[in-house]
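tool_call predict_complex ligand=glutathione
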Amino acid sequence: MGLAMYKLYWAPNTGAFAPEVLMELAGAPFEKVSIDYDGKEQHGETYRRLNPMGQIPLLILPDGTVMTESAAMVLHLVDCFPDAGLAPAPGTPERAVFDRWLVFAAVNLYTADLRYYYCDRYSTDPAAAPGVKAAAARDLDRQFAIVEEALGDSTFLQGERFSAADLYVMMLVDWYRPAQSRPVLARLRERLLEEPVIRAVWQRYQKSGS
Ligand SMILES: N[C@@H](CCC(=O)N[C@@H](CS)C(=O)NCC(=O)O)C(=O)O
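tool_result ok
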């Protein structure tokens, strides 16, 4: 029997970035399975048996449990590796704030980002796509402004203490270039990219990465 490891299904420029960074930071043993995103392997029968949504990332836990949803993976990993200090302790007010921003990013920013980049999927009328995209851009601007306000002068969302919520937000800032014209968000992105572990994973997620 092989060593008990996490198995992360990934492709460049996808939300697999967040769980991969967290596993690196936590020292969790993991292997990766590359999915041919441009070849639409995520929509193939084999992959859809694992994730019926046909989306990346997908995480298989060491015991074989299958997980989808990047924010759920973040929540699971931070709790499995408490010594890595990737989130405040469960049940504390600090953890409530962490949960708030992680979920805010997952349900607002991430989904608006999908509407922006896959605007043709959000109406049965092909002529509506530009309008869907414009509305997504408007929503992203409003939502990033809220995150910017929350960050204020702090280094991270919860003051000077880094958490996985910062990483998740940074991933979304990284994907949406207009967000980087907001100095506070650009600062968060740059600050996290100064961390060698984060930078190394980030490089693997650029299109030419492997
Ligand atoms: N809610 C999901 C969204 C995942 C998602 O949409 N992933 C994109 C890549 S970032 C994807 O796989 N898209 C493939 C497709 O829809 O064709 C999550 O957070 O894991």
